[in-house]
Amino acid sequence: MIWGSGRIGSGATSLTRKFVLAAAATIAISMGWLAFAISQRIETSMMQTAAEEGARFIEVFLGPLAQDLATSRSLSPESVKKLDDLLAGKSGQRMILVKIWLPDATLAYSTNKESLGGQFPSHHITAAVEGKATGEFDYLQDPENAAEKHLHTPLVEIYAPLFRTGTQEVIAVGEVYTDGRGLAADLVSIRLTSAAIVGAVTAPMMLILFLMVRGASKLVNRYQSTLIQNVIEAKYLAAQNDRLRRLADDARLEAADSNENLLARIGQDLHDGPIQLVSLLMLKVTDPTATKQAETGSSIAFDPSIEPLTKRILSELRNISTGLVLPELEGLTPNEIIRLAVQNHEEVTGTTVSRQIEDLPADLARPVTVCLYRIVQEGLNNAFHHGKAIEQRVEVRTEAQSIVVVVSDSGPGVADSRRESSRSRTGLGIAGLRNRVEALKGTFEFISQRGKGTQIRAKLPVSCSST
Question: Is the pLDDT score of 204 beyond 60?
Answer without folding.
Answer: yes
